[in-house]
Specification:
The structure holds two protein chains of two kinds. By secondary structure, chain A is an all-alpha fold. Chain A has 14 helices and no strands. Chain B folds into two domains: 59 residues; 212 residues, MetI-like fold, CATH 1.10.3720. Classes of the chains: A mainly alpha, B mainly alpha.
Chain lengths: 294, 276
């Protein structure tokens, strides 16, 4: 009998097609931004590219819109991660209780995640319509007309309005992953807890949460990364307005791209990439520690 | 004992009602779109939730005629078809090598792919690259960029699922005289069906609904349906009945794909994501 040796069955060349495309069109551009971010490349002189040292980065610090975008991106991320995960866990807990119509509910919550953000944004523009939008009409109908707002035009509410749309559009995946996690929890744990007279919150705190910690980590990290990378939501609903109140990194890069400042937007992209990597790294490390502690 | 049991049953009823209300509230925007897409322009302007006075099926005919539906749909099918096929082929092969060989090189490749889940795509340098390759505003340009963007999640899902396929099968195949290629394509790949379907659905949705790549790298004649919706909305900003009809036409393909693949998707997604 011949000895088992992987090289006879498998070949590394299977990695070649995937790796080639991924390296050339995804990794290489990321590295390229380390060069382009230090140049004055622009659409006006598309073939003449000169290094301009740290000019792009100085410009970022001088522009208030840059700081605004950082603050807005993190605000959007923090609030949407929190809402998506808290609501996601609660809905998943209830759906895990074997109710009637369970599979229908699962589809109901999942369907928005199949839709393009460019389809969802017009729906929310209609919902938020100041005069005839269902939200303001409903508020007026129940005598709370004073709460009716210009949801997308008023700088105080625009970002939160986008957050609500983001939660609606993405909570389906979160619920699905939490449900999968909950299904791995053995039923007898809950039965034992019932016998000991534990209530809903105690079971949640001492059984469900610790045991679905891996799902929590996956969900929080995914929604965090997705939140920082937000672009379509803002682009389609407010395009950064009113008055930069909803300007985020994604739209800032697009804005400078539109203005022809290619070197500068590469630099913004570079800073953005570093921020995303750094904070995701910190988040993952924190979640790992939490997983052990619970 | 008896009363506490009854209380529990009562509680469950109450919970069922609560979930029903939440789900109804959650799905009502979709209802608003559906009923208003059959109304006249005037009636739809109020976003009422009741049925139309008179069903205006003509809205759909109008959208079909004016929103470049056919062009956008064929663009979408071309992009999703080519990228979908290549992505599942490339990703499954890569995942097979990663999960079976297990050397330093393959695990490095795996982590390199995984870093793409976190790393934002460097859009302007990609623009630079495509420009040098003369691929701006071509189908090829959009295809190569989206294809490479689908790799991380596709490889992740396949690698996770591959763990549930026993290695003994490979050995049996080899003993029966399969070559390296036949072993994978004839024996292994068919066993990965739940993962394949999940990857296909994800990539279909990702490409069909893509915003960034098309917005930066191609013009309207090569856009998919959701991108055209955005344009259509700009041109018919007050005719909500037509906008809503366009939204529905645009969403039918993705929702159909999801419904068909749904029952495979949960297992394909969760074996990879939760146990992996």
């Amino acid at each position: 009998m011949k000895k088992y040796s992987p090289s006879r069955f498998y070949t590394r060349s299977f990695l070649l097609p995937a790796l080639t495309f991924y390296l050339v069109f995804f990794i290489f551009p990321s590295l390229l931004s380390l060069i382009l971010g230090f140049t004055d490349w622009s659409t006006y002189r598309i073939t003449e590219i000169h290094f301009n040292g740290l000019d792009n980065f100085k410009m970022m610090l001088d522009e208030p819109i840059f700081a605004t975008s950082i603050v807005n991106t993190f605000y959007f991320t923090f609030v949407s991660v929190l809402l998506t995960n808290v609501l996601g866990i609660l809905i998943a807990l209830v759906l895990n209780m074997k109710l009637r119509l369970q599979s229908l509910y699962r589809s109901v919550f999942f369907i928005p995640t199949t839709l393009s953000i460019l389809v969802i944004a017009p729906i929310f523009s209609a919902l938020y319509h100041p005069q005839f939008g269902p939200i303001n009409q409903a508020l007026r109908a129940i005598g709370l007309g004073f709460l009716a707002q210009e949801w997308l035009v008023d700088a105080r509410y625009a970002m939160n309005s986008i957050v609500v749309m983001a939660v609606w559009s993405s909570i389906g995946v979160t619920i699905l992953l939490y449900l999968a996690g909950l299904q791995t929890v053995p039923k007898d744990y809950y039965e034992a807890a019932d016998i000991d007279g534990c209530g809903f919150w105690q079971k949640l705190r001492h059984i469900s949460l610790p045991l679905i910690m891996p799902s929590i980590t996956v969900n929080i990290v995914l929604s965090f990364v997705g939140g920082l990378k937000v672009f379509g939501h803002v682009y389609a609903l407010t395009n950064g307005g009113p008055n930069d109140a909803t300007q985020v990194f994604g739209t800032l890069i697009f804005k400078n791209f539109g203005a022809g400042l290619l070197g500068y937007s590469s630099a913004v992209g570079l800073v953005f990439t570093m921020i995303v990597c750094l904070f995701t790294f910190i988040l993952i490390a924190t979640m790992r520690r939490l997983e052990i502690e619970l | 004992m008896n009363s506490s049991l009854r209380k529990q049953k009562y509680g469950k009823r109450l919970l069922e009602l609560a979930v029903f209300l939440i789900a109804a509230f959650f799905i009502f925007p979709v209802w608003m779109v559906v009923v208003n897409s059959f109304k006249t322009e005037k009636e739809a302007a109020f976003f009422g939730l009741g049925f139309p006075d008179k069903w205006q099926f003509v809205n759909y005919a109008k959208v079909f005629a004016e929103a470049n539906i056919v062009q956008a749909m064929s663009n979408g099918l071309l992009l999703t078809g080519v990228i979908g096929a290549l992505a599942l082929l490339f990703a499954s092969m890569a995942a097979f090598a990663i999960s079976r060989i297990g050397t330093k090189f393959t695990s490095f490749a795996y982590y390199l792919f995984m870093s793409g889940i976190v790393l934002p795509s460097a859009i302007i340098p990609t623009f630079f690259l495509l420009q040098r390759l003369n691929l701006i505003n071509t189908y090829t340009g959009v295809i190569v960029v989206l294809l490479s963007m689908t790799m991380p999640v596709s490889v992740f899902l396949y690698t996770g699922f591959m763990k549930s396929v026993p290695k003994e099968l490979d050995e049996a195949g080899i003993i029966d005289g399969c070559g390296k290629l036949r072993l994978f394509f004839v024996i292994i790949l068919p066993l990965l069906r739940p993962a394949t379907i999940t990857v296909m659905i994800f990539n279909f949705m990702g490409v069909w609904n893509d915003v960034t790549t098309q917005l930066y790298f191609s013009n309207a004649d090569k856009w998919t349906m959701p991108m055209m919706v955005y344009r259509f909305q700009g041109m018919y900003s007050s005719q909500w009945n037509l906008i809503f009809a366009d939204l529905i036409l645009t969403s039918i393909p993705v929702v159909l794909v999801y419904m068909i693949g749904q029952k495979y998707m949960v297992s394909g997604m969760t074996t990879g994501a939760v146990k992996g």
